[in-house]
C-alpha cells in the first residue's frame, strides 16, 4: 500500500534505531504518561459515576420522585387523587404518606425521629425500603396494632431490638384536668431497615398511616401521596403536567427541588476531578514536545537533504506531526484498554488489594458505601479519548513548525 511521503518518512523515523537512546527513553515515558493519565481518568470517572448512581438509588429509594399534597391541610380523598395521578403515562406507582416529627424514648434513651406513616399495600410501588429490611417485613405494620419499623441507626441509638416496646411523644397536646399534656403512645418494634444513608437510618421510623393519622390528629387523612416515575429525570416535567391536570389546590413537588444541591455537588466534584487528572495527560504532552524538539535537532541534516530534494516546509512539518501523533495514539489506546479493564473489574481488584494489605479502604462506620461501584459511560470514554489525542496533536505543532523553518544551507554548512 502506497503511503503519502510525509506519513512514510514519519513512520520511518519512528521505527528507526536512533543514535541517541535518551530520545527513545523520553518517547517511552511520554507514551506511559499518556496511558497512565487516560487510565486514571477512566477509572476515577467510572467509580464516581458508580458512587453517584448508588447514592441516588439509595436516597431516591427513601424519598419521593414526586409528591402531591393539599394546601388545605390533611388530604382526605387520597385514593381518588392517586387514581387521577396514575393516569399520567410516566407514573408507575403511588402511595399515601404522613410525615411528622416526634420524640421516641426507651428507658433512659431518647431520640428525635421523623415519623412516616405508610400503607404497606402500596409502599412497595414507590420505595425500596422492603429490599432494605434487616428484620421483619413492611406487612407487619397492621392498622390498630401500633407497630413501628426503625432505621438501624435509630434502633442502635435507642438500644432496641424487634419485639421491644418504645414510647412515642408527639408535639400535639391533649387537654386534661391537669392541663395540656403531650400525647403519648406505646409502639412495638416489628422491624428494622438499613437503607445505607446515615441521615435516614439514624432518624427515620415507619408506622401504618392509619395509626399515624390517629396519633397526629389528622382524622383519617394523610399528608399527601408519593409518586414513582419510570424515568426520574422527567420529574420536573411530570410535576408541571400534574399541576395542570389535578388543579391548583394541590402542591406538587419533586426530588430535584429537595435534593438538587447534593447531586449538583457530586457533578461538580466529578468535573473538578476530570480537570485535575487531565493534568497528567498535559504533563505527558510536554514530554512529547521535548522529545520532538530533540528529534528535530538530531535530524537537522536529514531535514536539509529532504528540503533540497524538493520537500516543502509544510511536508516537513507533517513528517514530525506524524511522529508525535503516533506517540500520543499509542499511549491513548494503551490507557484506554487498561482503564476499561480496571474499571470493569474494580469489584474484584479492590477486595484483593484490601486482603493483601489487610485493611479496608471504605470502613463501614465512616462511609455509607463500603464497596467501590463502577459505571462506565461511553460519553466519558469518548471525551477522554478525544482530549488525550487532541492534546497529543497540539503538542506536536511547535516542534514540527520549528522543523519546517530549517534552512538547508545553514544545516548542511557544518556537515
Task: Name some characteristics of this structure.
10 strands, six-stranded mixed barrel, single chain, 2 domains, 415 residues, alpha+beta
How would you characterize the overall build of this protein?
With 415 residues, the protein is an alpha+beta fold. The protein has 2 domains: 5-57 and 262-412, no CATH class; 73-248, no CATH class. It is built from 15 helices and 10 strands. The protein has helices at 5-15, 21-60, 78-85, 120-126, 152-158, 198-203, 209-215, 235-246, 255-298, 300-308, 313-344, 346-357, 378-395, 397-404, 408-412, and strands at residues 66-70, 91-106, 109-118, 133-135, 147-151, 165-176, 179-193, 204-208, 224-229, 250-254. A 6-stranded mixed β-barrel has the order 2-3-8-5-7-6, surrounded by 4 helices. The radius of gyration is 33 Å and the shape is elongated.
Amino acid at each position: 500500500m502506497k503511503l503519502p511521503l510525509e506519513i512514510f518518512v514519519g513512520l520511518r523515523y519512528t521505527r528507526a534505531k536512533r543514535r541517541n537512546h535518551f530520545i527513545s527513553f523520553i518517547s517511552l515515558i511520554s507514551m506511559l504518561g499518556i496511558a497512565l493519565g487516560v487510565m486514571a481518568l477512566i477509572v476515577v470517572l467510572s467509580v464516581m459515576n458508580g458512587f453517584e448512581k448508588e447514592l441516588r438509588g439509595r436516597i431516591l429509594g427513601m424519598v419521593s420522585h414526586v409528591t402531591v399534597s393539599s394546601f388545605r391541610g390533611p388530604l382526605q380523598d387520597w385514593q381518588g387523587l392517586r387514581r387521577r395521578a396514575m393516569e399520567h403515562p410516566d407514573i408507575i406507582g403511588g402511595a399515601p404518606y404522613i410525615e411528622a416529627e416526634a420524640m421516641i424514648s426507651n428507658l433512659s434513651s431518647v431520640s428525635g425521629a421523623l415519623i412516616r406513616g405508610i400503607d404497606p399495600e402500596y409502599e412497595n410501588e414507590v420505595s425500596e425500603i422492603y429490599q432494605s429490611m434487616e428484620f421483619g417485613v413492611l406487612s407487619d405494620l397492621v392498622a390498630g396494632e401500633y407497630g413501628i419499623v426503625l432505621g438501624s441507626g435509630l434502633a442502635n441509638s435507642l438500644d432496641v431490638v424487634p419485639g421491644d416496646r418504645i414510647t412515642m411523644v408527639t408535639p400535639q397536646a391533649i387537654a386534661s384536668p391537669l392541663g395540656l399534656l403531650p400525647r403519648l403512645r406505646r409502639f412495638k418494634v416489628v422491624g428494622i431497615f438499613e437503607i445505607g444513608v446515615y441521615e435516614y437510618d439514624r432518624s427515620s421510623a415507619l408506622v401504618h398511616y392509619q395509626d399515624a393519622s390517629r396519633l397526629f390528629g389528622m382524622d383519617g387523612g394523610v399528608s399527601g401521596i408519593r409518586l414513582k416515575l419510570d424515568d426520574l429525570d422527567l420529574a420536573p416535567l411530570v410535576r408541571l403536567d400534574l399541576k395542570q391536570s389535578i388543579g391548583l389546590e394541590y402542591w406538587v413537588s419533586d426530588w430535584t427541588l429537595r435534593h438538587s444541591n447534593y447531586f449538583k455537588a457530586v457533578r461538580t466534584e466529578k468535573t473538578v476531578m476530570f480537570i485535575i487528572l487531565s493534568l497528567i495527560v498535559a504533563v505527558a504532552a510536554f514530554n512529547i514536545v521535548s522529545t520532538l524538539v530533540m528529534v528535530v535537532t538530531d535530524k537537522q541534516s536529514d531535514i536539509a537533504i529532504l528540503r533540497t530534494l524538493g520537500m516543502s516546509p509544510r511536508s516537513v512539518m507533517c513528517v514530525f506531526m506524524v511522529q508525535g501523533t503516533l506517540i500520543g495514539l499509542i499511549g491513548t489506546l494503551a490507557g484506554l484498554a487498561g482503564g476499561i479493564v480496571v474499571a470493569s473489574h474494580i469489584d474484584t481488584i479492590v477486595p484483593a488489594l484490601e486482603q493483601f494489605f489487610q485493611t479496608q479502604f471504605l470502613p463501614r462506620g465512616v462511609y455509607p458505601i463500603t464497596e467501590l461501584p463502577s459505571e462506565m459511560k461511553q460519553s466519558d470514554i469518548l471525551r477522554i479519548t478525544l482530549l488525550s489525542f487532541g492534546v497529543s496533536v497540539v503538542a506536536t505543532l511547535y516542534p514540527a513548525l520549528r522543523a519546517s523553518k530549517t534552512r538547508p544551507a545553514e544545516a548542511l554548512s557544518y556537515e
